[in-house]
Structure formats: structure tokens, C-alpha cells
Amino acid sequence: MPATLKIDFVSDVSCPWCIIGLNALEQAADRLKGEVALDLHFQPFELNPQMAPEGQDIGEHLQEKYGATPEQSQKNREAIAARGAALGFTFSMDKRSRIYNTFDAHRLLHWAEEKGLQPALKKALFKAYFTDGQDPSNYEVLVRVAGEVGLDVAEARALLASDRYADEVREREQFYLQNGIHSVPAIIINERHLIQGGQPVEVFEQALRQIAAQG
Question: Structure pTM?
Fold first, then answer.
């Protein structure tokens, strides 16, 4: 029997390194098939909790937040696209020009966890934003993506129109902030071991093997 490792994957749907980290983690688990199985839970983290509803131009945002020049931002985008491609994910940088608020996407993900469809929704939201250049704060986008992964469209629409799960998402976000998580992805294994960032597959493979061996 493979050792089941609980993974709390703290991330945001607008974080490119989070999809890189997720794909690398899953490929590491594939290499350890028969030895290790993942019990994956996506936990909310907002990179930009104060982001206005209309979002912000990416270049402007990166310059304000990190002091990045257009040239630095371009180099970073190219590095991210190359890492993504090596892991089987397409970043369409030309289609993504704005950063958006992601709170409602996290409310939808909280609900999807109850329905057993959270990983599928998370990946579909990554694709919608990073590959297709769509707005993950837009209710029509969120409802459509929810339907595509098998969630009830009417229930998704009703959830978004209400404040359902707002308190639960904020509580989880605060829990991780208070426990020292200030950048993502943060991958917490069995509630004890922390791996941060979009690490290479080999790093995750070694960590999973070691933790599984500890029993």
C-alpha cells in the first residue's frame, strides 16, 4: 500500500509559480506511484487582496509591487513560460495583460472541495487565466469553468451572488498568514513539512520519498 501524504497546497489562481509547483509536485508523485499517494487540498492565498474589481495592468502592477522594469518583467515571463512548457503547461503571456482580484475564485474552490472537484477546478482556473487570458474575477467565466469540470452551474451562480464561504475563506487565509506563509506556493506535507516555491520535480520527489519513509 502506498503511503498517503496530506498536502495543503497554499496558493492563488493568479500565481504562475503555483501552477509550476503543482505540476512538478504531481509529476514527482507519478514517479513514486505505488510508494506515495497525495491527499491534495488547495488552501486560499490572495496575492492582491486589495485589488480593485477592474484589475490592474500587469506591467504597472509589477513595477509598483516589485520595482520591476519592463525588461525584467519580460525576462521573468519568458523564464516562467519555459518552466511551464517543460512541465506540460502553456503560459500564453500575450493573452494576459491584467491582474485581478481572486477572492470569489477561492470561494468557489472551497465549495468544490466539498463536491470532490477541487483539483479539477483549480487546474481549470489556472488554464482560464494563464493559457486563455480570461478574467478569474468575472462571474460568467467562473460559472462556465465550474460547469466544465462538472459542478452545478445554477448552484455556482447562486454561490457567487451571495457571500457564501466568504468567512471560511478569510479564516483559512488568516490561519496561513499567522503561521508565517507570506509567499506562494507553500506546500505543507502532513501538516509538518514545508516546501516553498515552484521547485523542480526532483526536489519534490526526494521530499515525498523521505517523508513517506518516516511513516
Answer: 0.95
